[in-house]
Description:
Layout: H1 10-23, E1 28-30, H2 37-47, E2 51-53, H3 60-67, E3 73-76, H4 79-86, E4 91-94, E5 119-122, H5 131-134, H6 151-166
Parallel strand pairs: 1-2, 3-4, 4-5
Helix pairs in contact: 1-2, 1-6
Amino acid sequence: MSSAAKIYPPELFVQALKLIAEKSDVTFVYFGGKELTEWGKFFQQNLGNRLIDLSGKTTLRETCAVVSKTSMYIGTDTGTMHIAAALKLPVIMISKDAEDSITNYFTLYPRFLPWQTPTKIVSAQHALKPCNENNIGCVVAHPHCITQITPQSIADAFDIMKKIVYKSN
């Protein structure tokens, strides 16, 4: 699993995916290691047949194969996100780092962003204490700055990305 600061709370993530599902005919695929199967069950319970739960069920090679059949990545900065970007899929990345901390070399930007693929970064506007005191991004060892991101902002990012990539209304 990635750094705990990168975890977007599952309750908020489900709300974001429900907002997206209200306006689009989509099926979501949930990936994760065996340690994330409880979250997979939680997503499945809340999204029903709109979600395929593959947590703890795929090898890296199988994950790559399934990701290659999807049309977009929505999630945090994980290995799966980088697989999607390498496959040139559009990426909506939910970032642990706030917008006002993106200018420092030590933060995520621009060193580790998806490269040469359409990307929309969703992040909080302002870092919380103590992260706003050091200008090196979110440094707390649990979901912190990322928890300020609203489900609506992720749904809005989906709408923007869908229009850009698929030239739809």
